Amino acid sequence: MMRLLVLGSSQAAALALGRDAFTAIAPATELTFFALPGASWSRTRIDEAGRLGPAPDDRFGLRKAAEWNGCERIGLQGFDHIAVSAARFHLYYLARLMRAVDIHGLPATGALPRISRAMLSDTLAAWVREDLAALRTRLPVGVPVTMIAVPYPLAATDRPGPSAEPGLARLRRHPAAPEIERDYDAAVAGVLSAAGIGWMAQPDATRAGPFATDDGFARPGALEAEKPDLRHVGADYGRMVMAALARRLGGAPPGSLADIGPGPLPGPLSKPLSATAGPP
C-alpha cells in the first residue's frame, strides 16, 4: 500500500473534505492529513524524534493540532509522498509592490514609476525561493513532494466590509493584473520545478479573474456571516483538487488535468497508485 501525507495550514481543511474524491480514484492509498492554523504552521519544527508539530511554546497550536488531527505531532517517516498546501508565496508582498510601480511594456496606471518585466520575474522568483527554503525545514529528506496552491481569497474580498482586503483588490484592478498573475504563476512553477518539486496550480475553473477565487467555492454560510470567512474554501474545491491529485500521482490520462497546470511528477509516483510499492 502506498502512503500519502497531506500537510498544510488551515487551507488544508478543504483538501481533507475531498478525501472521498481521492480514495474513489486511488483506493489502495493510505491517506493522512495534518494541518495547523497558519500562525502555528509558520513556526512548526521537526523534533529529535522526526515528528513535525507546533513549537513547544505554542499552546494554541498544540491544542489545535490535537483538535484537528487527533495528535499534537506527526512522524514523517514511512511516507511515499508528501503533498503540502500552505504557502501563498508572498502574494501580499506583490500587492504592496504593485501599489508603487508599473511594469514596462504592460498596461499601466500611468501614474507610477516603471520597472522591467524581467525585474518583476526575478523578484517573484526570489520570494518563492524564500518560502521554499522555509518549507524545506519542515520536510524529511528524500521523500517526493508536491506543492498544492493555496487558493486565492474569494472575489468578495473586493467588497466593503469586515473581511475586505483593499490591498488585494487594488492588485486585481491593476491594468496589467492578468499578465502579472501569469508571471506570478510562472515564477512559482519555475522555482519548484528547478527544485524537483511537483506543483499543482489553482484550477482555472475555480478562479474569478486575477488573484481571486470564485465566491461559489466559499464554505457554506461563509458569505452571510457577520464577519465572512473569505480566505477559505469548501468541500467542492477540496474534491476537485484531491481528485486531480490522485490522478496526477497515479499517472492521469492525457488531457484530464488541463485545468490544473504543469509541473513535474517527481520520484516513484509516476506509477499507478495501486501498483506503487510501500516503504521498504
Summarize the structure in words.
This protein is an alpha/beta fold and 280 residues long. It has a single domain, classed as Rossmann fold, CATH 3.40.50. It is 36% helix and 13% strand. It contains 9 helices and 10 strands. It has helices spanning 12-17, 19-25, 38-41, 59-69, 91-100, 117-136, 166-173, 177-194, 235-250; strands at 2-8, 29-35, 45-46, 51-53, 74-75, 81-85, 102-103, 114-115, 145-148, 198-200. It has a 5-stranded parallel sheet with strand order 2-1-6-9-10. Strands 3-4-5 form a 3-stranded antiparallel sheet. Strands 7-8 form a two-stranded parallel sheet. Helix 5 (91-100) packs across helix 7 (166-173) and helix 6 crosses helix 8. The model is unreliable at 251-280 (pLDDT under 50).
